[in-house]
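Two proteins follow. First one:
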Amino acid sequence: MTKKIAFQGEPGAYSHQACVDARPDHTAIACRTFEDVIEITRSGEVDLAMLPVENSTYGRVADIHRLLPESGLRIVEEAFVRVHINLLALPGTRLDQVKSAQSHTVLLGQCRRFLREHGIDAVTGADTAGSAKHIAALGDPAKAALASELAGEIYGLEVLARHIEDQSNNTTRFFIMGREADLTQRGTHGMMTSFVFRVRNIPAALYKAMGGFATNGVNMTKLESYMVGGSFTATQFFADIEGHPEDANVRRALDELTYFTSYLEILGTYPADSRRF
């Protein structure tokens, strides 16, 4: 039986592209919200979840850090997708016919130069693939969409201009998540471990908590803070480190971290993707 992987958004979304790239042998299942993705994965209706974590241009994806610790899922892999933006229109449309382009506000902001040069008005849509679906249904050659080539294929639109984004390195990082952790993996490019923690209410707790990683030679590639429950005094941290919890130096660093924290949860240990380097 074919395995399934869930993503948030309409078919043709960049999360859908991530599923096709990373798990071509899985059937991609579209979900309305991130919570829906998590729920059908946790219930066993699908095998894996594809969740965006951060973008190289716009930073972390809202709400994801809050949802991950509560999800009951574990990270089994990371995936990186280059966000190539394309101008999509009805088949047979000429570029000079297009008067407006619809997409998510983030994508519109990433194509300002192209839109300005061609006199195309930006129209805000709910999302990228949804905009492509809407434009296909309208049937107006003066109206186009900004989305992935996959969205064009799905909704029968033609690519008028490829890779029109202002920044050539725009990349989104995704977590592939499952119901069980897989600690047997050992990646060609090393391992990553992601976790969340809260420090104890003692002076210089965060400084002391981080000391164990420095003294044990563990490279921390990410440390972000965010509020817990809307409180200005309760702060939770999300961290990525290089290494596996079974590595002696990582184990010592995590043991030291535990001493200075009131809460610590490892979200997953997974192979480092070659594209992160």
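Second one, unrelated to the first:
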Amino acid sequence: MMKCFYYLSPTLDISKRVSDDLHEAGLLDWYLHVVSKDEAGLNQKHIHSSNYLETLDLFRGTTIGGIIGFVLSLILIGLAVKFEPFGFPLSNTIYFVIVLFFTLFGIWEGGLYGIDSENKKIKPFHDDIEAGKYLVLVYAAKEQEEAIKKMMAEKHPESKLVATDRHFVNPFSKLKVV
């Protein structure tokens, strides 16, 4: 089980040192992402930038959209079974197509909403990021957690631990703001 630690770093140079020290501690780029409005600076300093799953609410939107579409399809099927609008019962294949269509349509609509929305877990730090700070997301396995927290407290006290999450991608997990 991975945990995600959110550190707020004040400058690009400090974020670079944080990144380098986390790499020295054995953390791979895959487990370290920085959210910033200065993408060019991150690229120039060779700091692993965040991805769309971290900055947009795409995964959460598609999940909720799919659930809503599925529930609506079940309601529609229930109404079709009860009222038989065509004068005869529909086949199971038609019911399956209805479920599939509404679920996929919900996923599509939820994805459109998600692409247009900031990730709800990043939103509490929106003003800091817009002010030029850097949100460092560190994904750590259970056995790495204490070592990472200790190293960050000792070497980078200016980068504050602002939140933790049991796992970033889960759209329904609660962000624990420190």
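SUMMARY FIELD: The radius of gyration is 22 Å. The chain has two domains: 3-51+120-177, 57-116.
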